[in-house]
Amino acid sequence: MDVRPLLIVDAANVVGSRPDGWWRDRAGATARLRDSLAGLGEVGLPPQLLPPVVVVLVVEGRARDVAAVPGVEVVGARGSGDDAIVDLVRAAPQRRRVVVTADRELRDRVVAEGAEVYGPRWLREGSEGRMAGPAVRAQDAASPANRTPGASG
C-alpha cells in the first residue's frame, strides 16, 4: 500500500487564479502548470508537505487532454473537475490528502472527507522558481479563499 501523501491540484482553479492570459490558451496554461509541478514529488512543499509526495493534477474542459509527465499524474475529469477531486480524496482515506484550490464549495466538500486544503498562493510560494513570481503572489495574497481555516499557509 502506497502511503505517500497525495497533492491533488485543481488545475482550472490554480490556472484561473493568475490573470496572465490563460483564457486564450487553457491547455497551454495547464501544461505550464503541470511542468512547474514536476519536481514537487521529490522535494515536497516544506514545511507543510514533506517528500516524497504523489502529485496529481486534475484537468477538465479544454485542458482535459493535457498529458502526464514524469512526476505528475494527470486525471482528466469526464465531467466536473470538482467531482473528480472529491472522488480522488474518497479513494484514499488511509493517505494524507492535500488539495490545492481556492474554490470554497470544493474546499468544504474535501474537508468533509478528511483532506487538507491550501490555496494557489501556497502552491506558488512553496514551489518558488517553478511558478509565478513575486508580483503575482502579492496580487493573490489578498484572497481570503487561499487557505482552510486552521491550516497554515
Keywords, separated by commas or semicolons:
alpha/beta, five-stranded parallel β-sheet, 153 residues, disordered C terminus
Explained architecture:
The chain is of the alpha/beta class. Helix content is 36%, strand content 14%. The protein has helices spanning 11-16, 26-37, 40-43, 81-90, 104-112, 120-126, 134-140; strands at 6-10, 54-59, 73-76, 97-100, 116-118. Strands 3-2-1-4-5 form a 5-stranded parallel beta sheet, sandwiched between helices.
Chain-wise SSE layout:
Blueprint: E1 6-10, H1 11-16, H2 26-37, H3 40-43, E2 54-59, E3 73-76, H4 81-90, E4 97-100, H5 104-112, E5 116-118, H6 120-126, H7 134-140
Parallel strand pairs: 1-2, 1-4, 2-3, 4-5
Structure summary:
The chain is α/β, with parallel strands linked by helices and 153 residues long. The protein is 36% helix and 14% strand.
Mean of all residue-level pLDDT scores = 85
Cα-to-Cα separation, first versus last residue: 29 Å
> Uncertain regions: pLDDT < 50 for 5+ in a row?
129-153
Radius of gyration: 14 Å
Beta-strand content estimate:
5-15%
Strand order of the largest sheet: 3-2-1-4-5
User: How much helix is in the residues?
Assistant: 25-40%
What is the N-to-C order of secondary-structure elements (H for helix, E for strand)?
EHHHEEHEHEHH
Count helical runs: 7
How many beta strands in the DSSP annotation?
5
Overall geometric form: globular
Structural class by helix and strand composition: alpha/beta
Largest sheet at a glance? 5 strands, parallel
